[in-house]
Amino acid sequence: MFDLFLKTIIFDYIKNYNMKKLFIVLTALFSFNLTSGQGTMIYGMAAAKTGLISGDIKSLDKVTKVSILLDSKETLIGVKNMNMSDGDYTTEAKYLDRKSADLEEKEKGRGKEFREDWEKAKTTTYPEKFEELFNKYGPKDISMEGKYNGKDADYNLVIKTVLIDPGWNIGIMKKPSFIDIECIFTDKAGKELCRFFCKNIIGSNGTGFDYTISSRVKESYAKASKMLVALIEKERKK
């Protein structure tokens, strides 16, 4: 009950952009020890899960180098509490239109800037973070390395983004981002070798300074990359 009450307060003040009043209300709530003892409330999230969807793990035995590709053509976006008619999730296009319009109404130029940052993160921040963690653990744990949009690999690793929940952070409280992705290994001809899933991958910067969507979501991709390597290693040992 308190959780619902608190959410109502937060999003009402965010919607009306009255951060000063929001800070006063939340400070009072914290003083009565109604929240967690950490000083930052993180709403409950489902546990992260990974698994092999299809294919034979042995088909990856000769795969030592991959070209990492991102596919976000069918990505859904979490919009719970945004009062959108779609429900909890909507298409990326509808989300960007609504979010950009809301920001533009508050300050001219913010909507355009938001949309540009969103698109840039998909082609730089997210894939580069995935690549970084893949190459940190892959060569050692599964004898595999990858490069985003690499040209000299005989195999592809397609990261299909199924869902992004952007989360939020207002300083003393936050909801981390999370993503659902499918990781698909193919040969150059496009023949699928293996397909894995990584679900409910939470992204949250340990420093707490993840106030932008990209700063949160990039951590989700980083964690997903690390978990994919661990999953392949586990499947090979079965």
- Number of helical runs? 5
Low-confidence stretches: 1-9, 20-44
Shape category: elongated
- Distance from N terminus to C terminus (CA atoms, Å) equals 45 Å
Q: What is the mean predicted local confidence, pLDDT?
A: 83
Characterize the quaternary organization of these chains.
single chain
Strand composition percent: 25-35%
User: What pattern of helices and strands is seen along the backbone?
Assistant: HHEEEEEHHEEEEEEH
How many whole angstroms does the radius of gyration measure? 20 Å
Number of beta strands: 11
Structural category is: alpha/beta
In short:
With 238 residues, this protein is α/β, with parallel strands linked by helices.
Report on this structure:
- The protein has helices at residues 2-15, 19-31, 92-106, 110-141, 213-236, and strands at residues 41-42, 49-55, 65-71, 76-78, 89-91, 145-148, 155-165, 168-169, 173-175, 177-187, 192-203.
- The longest helix has 32 residues, at 110-141.
- The model is unreliable at 1-9 and 20-44 (pLDDT under 50).
- α3 crosses α4 (110-141) and α4 runs parallel beside α5 (213-236).
- β8 and β9 form a beta hairpin.
- It is α/β, with parallel strands linked by helices and 238 residues long.
- It is elongated and about 55 Å long.
- Strands 2, 3, 4, 5, 6, 7, 10 and 11 form an 8-stranded mixed beta sheet that branches. It has a 3-stranded mixed beta sheet with strand order 1-9-8, with no helix packed on it.
